């Protein structure tokens, strides 16, 4: 089963209530605040193909959070978590 995460930037808390209200109750989606402030670490080089793929995905989320104030991530049960 696929789920959709709506990640709201910590710098745009005004969007949280707006998204929660718009989404309502759904088993396949969740609205969360980005809790990674101050925890971002950048590596010089990724060690494996899997870690490079995860690194690209996290970069995409970071960019969307900065640009739009939110990011939409689709997660399948077979995929690993966004944070290593």
Care to give the gist of this entry?
With 84 residues, the protein is α+β, with helices and mostly antiparallel strands.
Highlighted features:
alpha+beta; 3 strands; 84 residues
Notes on the structure:
By secondary structure, the protein is an alpha+beta fold. The chain has one domain (about 1-75). Helix content is about 35%, strand content about 25%. It is built from 2 helices and 3 strands; from the N terminus they run βαβαβ. It has helices at about 15-25, 50-70, and strands at about 1-10, 30-35, 70-75. A 3-stranded mixed beta sheet has the order 2-1-3. Helix 1 links the parallel strand 1 and strand 2. The mean pLDDT is about 75.
Q: What structural class is derived from the secondary structure elements?
A: alpha+beta
Strand order of the largest sheet: 2-1-3
Distance between the first and last residues' Cα: 22 Å
Beta-strand portion reads: 15-25%
Count, helices: 2
Q: Which term fits the overall shape?
A: flat
SSE layout:
Layout: E1 2-8, H1 14-23, E2 29-33, H2 49-68, E3 70-76
Parallel strand pairs: 1-2
Antiparallel strand pairs: 1-3
């Amino acid at each position: 089963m696929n789920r959709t995460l709506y990640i709201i930037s910590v710098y745009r808390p005004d969007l949280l209530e707006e998204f929660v209200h718009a989404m309502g109750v759904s088993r396949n989606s969740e609205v969360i605040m980005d809790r990674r402030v101050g925890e971002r670490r950048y590596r010089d080089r990724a060690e494996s193909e899997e870690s490079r793929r995860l690194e690209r995905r996290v970069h995409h989320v970071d960019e969307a959070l900065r640009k739009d104030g939110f990011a939409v991530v689709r997660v399948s049960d077979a995929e690993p978590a966004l944070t290593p």
